[in-house]
Amino acid sequence: MSILDNLFSQYIFILKEILSKLYIDQQVENIILQMEKEFTKLIDSELTKNVTLKDINQKTHIVTPCFMIALYRVLNGIPSITVSLELISDIMMDVF
Predict the structure, then answer these.
(1) Are 28 and 20 in contact (CB under 8 A)?
(2) Cα–Cα distance measured from residue 90 to residue 54, given in angstroms and rounded to the nearest whole number
(3) Separation of alpha carbons 65 and 51, rounded Å
(4) Are 52 and 62 spatial neighbours (Cβ–Cβ below 8 Å)?
(5) What would the pLDDT profile of 33-84 be if each residue is shown by its tens digit?
(6) Is residue 27 within 8 Å of 80, Cβ to Cβ?
């Protein structure tokens, strides 16, 4: 497992704990599944590759913004969840 994958897995583990306090289990599992797909799309995109530095230690800095964007996109795509800047901010602060 790469450093980037490891960091993402740690974020997902924490996120799952946070979401389990906010939503039912089925919603949490759906969010986590969608997060994995959305994050992978973002990390593997040409745009991300163009701005990502080559050094592995510097590459870790791209995980957090991609994680935040993926979280916003996933939550925004679920009709039963009202997404606000405050919600995203609260969840991300809890993750960190």
Answers:
(1) yes
(2) 31
(3) 12
(4) yes
(5) 999 999 999 988 888 777 666 666 667 778 888 899 999 999 999 888 888 8
(6) yes
